[in-house]
Design goal:
Structural class: alpha/beta
Number of helices: 4
Radius of gyration: 22 Å
CATH superfamily: von Willebrand factor, type A domain
Order of helices and strands: EHEEHHEEEH
CATH architecture: 3-Layer(aba) Sandwich
CATH class: Alpha Beta
Helix content: 25-40%
Distance between the termini: 71 Å
Strand content: 5-15%
Largest sheet: 4 strands, mixed
Length: about 170
Amino acid sequence: MPILLFLIDTSASMNQRTYLGTTYLDIAKGAVEIFMKLRARDPASRGDRYMLVTFDDPPYGVKAGWKENHATFMSELKNLQASGLTTLGHALRAAFDLLNLNRLVSGIDNYGQGRNPFFLEPSVIITITDGNKLTHTSGVPDESWNKILQRTQGPPAQASACPGPSEVC
């Protein structure tokens, strides 16, 4: 009885159109619909539970929870609109928080006792995005990647007005 969590990028960049005139968000919606139809044919998928989460800030990013029926899921999928900024890191964190909350509710995880290994509920996060630059909700580019690069490569070289060795200037 796995949980399949679809994390859909609903940033404004998903309004881009392909050469056929279809938006990226429409392609993402179609991909999820096809996946759901193909998965429904498999007898092993009878106990699957689906979640639909977008890049919107929590709690607005949860469009269909694990207790929603198939019709609600598909209705929410069709109603997705692209606006806002790409916040992949925040969206992934919200997705993991939702899965952890589900584990607490279902008794897989317990405070003080940890995880019960004999209860197993696999979860899959399927992320669909156009891959545009990561940004924050404040509109400022996410500098965390630059900080990581600086730690691994060292600080950027300082420019000097003196063309010769530092002893000469």
